[in-house]
Each structure stands twice: as structure tokens, then as C-alpha cells.
């Protein structure tokens, strides 16, 4: 009878060395999905012992890939799976910090329920890293085959149950005069951050908005024609205190975000009772505050 191979201490050391040498090489995380129930093994071959069985449709992180076998991370385990039964799902290309909107390859969707858990991975056993409220809009990276959706969230990405997201199908004609609510906002030729920049709006500049698009952009009148700006950076009104005004945080911990949205990255936190200087209030329920040597946004509901 053929004996199954097991990892020796030396082999484990070699595997650990391989992982430590690979991990820092790239900030990108290549992920794949299993096409069927797939054995995770201690080595690259069917003669190696089985660590566990990964279910069909599960998402794994690829560490190193070859023609026949792929070294992957799954939950807290690392091992080899047959390359023939993996489907490439996504490369985690985080949008550039210089972009004023996530890549137009990301689809905008809306949350249909309150208090929806955002998890670290595509499973209810994965840790909760945040929550979405009803009508919150998020950018979707991809859907897994086991009912989860990967979304852009805070400083990176998270997963939510796909059944609580819906498509945003309608463009809305508005014909309203609105104001820029950030220091500088790019005016672009088309409704995507990859389109060429035609000009810029400054804080409190007014524009006539013709239509709000379902992908998070607004069509505006510009130089006798039309152009586009990111919808979340324009508001009906921008309320600015007549003199420096300070308010207090009235919750235990309040996230300070880079932009006025729960999906934007967290740049700091306020503690209960901590005072902040108010720059202005947005009618979307966010307040711009002075933070360190720059600015940030907090939920207006938690300031008194």
C-alpha cells in the first residue's frame, strides 16, 4: 500500500520560508474561487495528506501558482490545491489615492436593509468589520458563487450578503443649482475618474446639475456644453458657521473619514466629549471638521 507523504519539520520550515519571502513582494491580493469541492493538501501532489476540504465556490487567496498546483491561504490554513479547479475571481487593485472616485469598473449598488454586517471574508464565521444602513450605496468588486459580494469599504474591502444589495437602475433628472462641498473637485469629460479633466470646482462654487446618474456621477452645464462631477461632492446647501464653532462628540467612538461616506477610509477617531472645530454641515448628514493639519468628515448625528 502506498504511504501518504506528510510534512516534516524541515518541510514546514521551507513552506514558512517560502511564504515569508513571497508575502512582501506585492500589495495586491490575488483571489480565486473553487470550481468544486477541493482538497487542501500539505504539498503539491495527491500523495500529500489532506488538511481540509474547501467547498465549491469558496474564495481562496493565491500565494504562489504553477501549472498543476497552487499554494493558497484559506481561513487560517495554508496548503496546496489543484490548479485545474480554480477560477480567477479578482485582483485586489485598490483605487489610487489620487482618484476622486473608485474605478469605473466597480458597480454602484444600494443596501436594502438596516444594520447589515460587513465582514472580513465571505462567510458568517468571518469577523465583522462594519455595518451598512438601509439605502447606503457601495461599490461592488465581484459576487462570489456562495451568496456574498465583495465591496469597497473603509480602508480596503469587505463582504456582505448579496441578497441585501440591489441595482441602482435609474438616472434622475434634477435641474438644480448645487454647491461644491470640497476644496477642489475635478470636472471631467465623461462620468468616470478615468476621463480627462476639463476644469475644477472650488469649495462653494455653484453648478447647474442636469442629471444625477446611477453610477454616482452628475451631469452638469459647463462652458456651453456638458461635463461630469462626482455626485457625493456636491450638495444642495453648504451650511457654514459665521464664526469658528466647536462641537462635542456624544458617542463612545466616532470615526473620522476622508470623505462624507461610510464607505470611505477612516483617518482618525473622536472620543466621547472630545471637541472639534466645525468647517461646515452637509444636508447629507455629514459634517466637515478640522482634523490635525487637514480636514475630515464625521456623522452629524453624533455631534452636540
Automatic annotation (TrEMBL):
Which stretch is the leader sequence? none
User: Which Gene3D superfamilies does this UniProt record tie to the protein?
Assistant: SH3 Domains (2.30.30.40)
Q: Which PROSITE patterns match?
A: SH3B
SMART domains xrefs: SH3b
Matching entries from SUPFAM superfamilies are given as: SH3-domain
Q: Name one Pfam family in it.
A: SH3_3
Domain SH3b as annotated: residue spans: 28-90, 103-169, 233-304
* Full protein name: SH3b domain-containing protein
Origin organism is: bioreactor metagenome
Amino acid at each position: 500500500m502506498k504511504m501518504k507523504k506528510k510534512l516534516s519539520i524541515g518541510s514546514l520550515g521551507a513552506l514558512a520560508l517560502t511564504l515569508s519571502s513571497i508575502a512582501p513582494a506585492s500589495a495586491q491580493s490575488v483571489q480565486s474561487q473553487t470550481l468544486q469541492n477541493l482538497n487542501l493538501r500539505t504539498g503539491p501532489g495527491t500523495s500529500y495528506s489532506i488538511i481540509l476540504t474547501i467547498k465549491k465556490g469558496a474564495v481562496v487567496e493565491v500565494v504562489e501558482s504553477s501549472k498543476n498546483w497552487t499554494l493558497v491561504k484559506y481561513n487560517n490554513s495554508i496548503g496546496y490545491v489543484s490548479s485545474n479547479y480554480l477560477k480567477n475571481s479578482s485582483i485586489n487593485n485598490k483605487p489610487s489615492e489620487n482618484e476622486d472616485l473608485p474605478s469605473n469598473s466597480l458597480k454602484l449598488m444600494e443596501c436594502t436593509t438596516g444594520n447589515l454586517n460587513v465582514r472580513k471574508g465571505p462567510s458568517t464565521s468571518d469577523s465583522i468589520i462594519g455595518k451598512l444602513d438601509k439605502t447606503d450605496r457601495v461599490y461592488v468588486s465581484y459576487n462570489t458563487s456562495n451568496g456574498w459580494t465583495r465591496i469597497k469599504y473603509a480602508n480596503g474591502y469587505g463582504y456582505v450578503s448579496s441578497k441585501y444589495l440591489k441595482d441602482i437602475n435609474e438616472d434622475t433628472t434634477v435641474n438644480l443649482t448645487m454647491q461644491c462641498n470640497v476644496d477642489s473637485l475635478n470636472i471631467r469629460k465623461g462620468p468616470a475618474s478615468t476621463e480627462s479633466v476639463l476644469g475644477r470646482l472650488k469649495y462653494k462654487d455653484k453648478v447647474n446639475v442636469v442629471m444625477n446618474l446611477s453610477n454616482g456621477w452628475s451631469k452638469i452645464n459647463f462652458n456651453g456644453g456638458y461635463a461630469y462631477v462626482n455626485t457625493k461632492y456636491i450638495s444642495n446647501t453648504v451650511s457654514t458657521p459665521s464664526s469658528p464653532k466647536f462641537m462635542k462628540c456624544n458617542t463612545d467612538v466616532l470615526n473620522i473619514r476622508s470623505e462624507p461616506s461610510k464607505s470611505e477610509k477612516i483617518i482618525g477617531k473622536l472620543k466621547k466629549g472630545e471637541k472639534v472645530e466645525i468647517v461646515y454641515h452637509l444636508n447629507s448628514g455629514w459634517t466637515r471638521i478640522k482634523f490635525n493639519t487637514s480636514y475630515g468628515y464625521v456623522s452629524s448625528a453624533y455631534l452636540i
